[in-house]
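Lecture notes, unit on protein representations.

Consider one protein chain, 296 amino acids long.
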Amino acid sequence: MKKVLLLISPKSRRGADSIALATEQLQSLGYTIINDPCQESRDPNEVVMKHAHEAAFVIVGGGDGSVNMVLPSLVKTQLPLVVIPLGTANNLARHYAVPNDINEALSVITSGEEIMLDLGMVNGLYFVNVVGLGLSTYVNSSVPSKLKKYLGALAFVITAFYLSTKIRPFRLKVIADGKEYTRRSWQISVCNGRHYGNGLTIKHDASLVDGKLHALSTEVPKWWQGFALIPALISGRYKKDHDVSLFEAEEIELSTRRKLKIDVDGDIKTHTPATFKVHRRALKMMIPTISDSLDS
């Protein structure tokens, strides 16, 4: 029997009901699980490092935050990541069209292909999708957990609408590959890949293998004018008259007049000033073969 690690967060939206289904499917594929998936109190990196010598894959069930938690050990061991998208946003899974169905998601073990992805790093912390500063930080720290569990992405939309009327834009200095810019922003998102938030696109042709970080600053004069940007934020295509700034760089620095909290793949983990770098081909992942063209 081949051995795998199964890390499913019971806190993710569908995590609590998925361990048995994943276990059954892995057994049918000829794999045995060498850890206890229910030990949610354990640091997942400790689990990976303990079993790195005997595991063929690390299977993470949850959202982008669950994947983020295990990035340090995945980078260190170079064990292939298999994602079961059980969270709210699932932007990493969306980028490579990983199915939401557990059985189909696990099929990449036998029928998928192995690729190497870029990772971002902010203030020494890895991220696979997005780092946010501004409205997203307020939303991620304010959305009720029960509302998130039962409403999913809609919980973030409701919370964002409520908070938009209460926050103010902030002064921001951006240094992108040595070039300096000053902005008045409601939100800046720095992405390693293409997708972020809940159905948003940082740039239509951004990818997880382009060796670049892509940053978007929203700079509408009034908060309610941001609604006019929604089509562009979804498509990742912007016009000259849109009140946004786009930055594409291998290294980015952000600073604000006062320290502001920063969310990393959905969880608040650091603050300004912030230094970003891209680490090329740092993460190994199994993806469906139908996803070949996404990063071509």
